[in-house]
Automatic annotation (TrEMBL):
Gene Ontology cellular component terms for the protein in this record: endoplasmic reticulum membrane; mitochondrial membrane
Tagged with keyword Transcription: no
Record's protein name: Phosphatidylethanolamine N-methyltransferase
Domain of life the protein comes from: Eukaryota
Catalytic activity: a 1,2-diacyl-sn-glycero-3-phospho-N,N-dimethylethanolamine + S-adenosyl-L-methionine = a 1,2-diacyl-sn-glycero-3-phosphocholine + S-adenosyl-L-homocysteine + H(+); a 1,2-diacyl-sn-glycero-3-phospho-N-methylethanolamine + S-adenosyl-L-methionine = a 1,2-diacyl-sn-glycero-3-phospho-N,N-dimethylethanolamine + S-adenosyl-L-homocysteine + H(+); 1-hexadecanoyl-2-(4Z,7Z,10Z,13Z,16Z,19Z-docosahexaenoyl)-sn-glycero-3-phosphoethanolamine + S-adenosyl-L-methionine = 1-hexadecanoyl-2-(4Z,7Z,10Z,13Z,16Z,19Z-docosahexaenoyl)-sn-glycero-3-phospho-N-methylethanolamine + S-adenosyl-L-homocysteine + H(+); 1-hexadecanoyl-2-(4Z,7Z,10Z,13Z,16Z,19Z-docosahexaenoyl)-sn-glycero-3-phospho-N,N-dimethylethanolamine + S-adenosyl-L-methionine = 1-hexadecanoyl-2-(4Z,7Z,10Z,13Z,16Z,19Z-docosahexaenoyl)-sn-glycero-3-phosphocholine + S-adenosyl-L-homocysteine + H(+)
Amino acid sequence: MSDSDTAAAGDKHSELLDCCGGLNNIDYSKMDLKWMEELLKHINFHDSNFCIAVIAIIFNPLFWNVVARWEHRTRRLSKLFGSPYLACYCLGFVIILLNVYRSHSMTVAMKAQARWEVMDRTDVFYTGVALIVLGTLLVVSSFLALGFTGTFLGDYFGILMDEKVTGFPFNIVENPMYWGSTANYLGLALIGASPVGLVLTAIVAGAYKVAIRYEGPFTGLIYQERSQHRKHE
């Protein structure tokens, strides 16, 4: 390495240290967290409706991932129903019912707890409406692009798509079904001026984030196995 390269590297290292030092020098105790305190004051975390909603949020992606992986490994559902398509349709129907119940439990929890006057504004209301429109667009267009089996884990039943879907909305955002659903819940929270709705929406986003980390690599492995099988044919 030349002297000039060494000097440049040294400068970059110094800049990085200065940046990190600047972050370390931030006095977080002086940050205004009153809005967070006010938000938490309006939430009863011991409310049974809130607890039920949290359980429903966490249970749903856990359920369909466990069942779908079990099916992929054993093909028990396909054998039970006599067809991978029928088995996938039945699982999809169960998932839809679970999601309806999750939405219901979140709505009940939001109605059971206090509204926050800070959120009870016209601009917040219309932001919520816009998020619901956007979320619905992402969910519906994703379903139309993937079809029923593509949406409801048909890959795990051996129902594989010919090629990866890259059109709208997948050319805009990855996992549009999940993030569209999250946008819908956030929109409902804003329309209802519901602080507990914001917390529940954050839990939904977290649950989906975890599900994506497990589903993405596993689905990729399924298609990789198909590709290797075709090469040996």
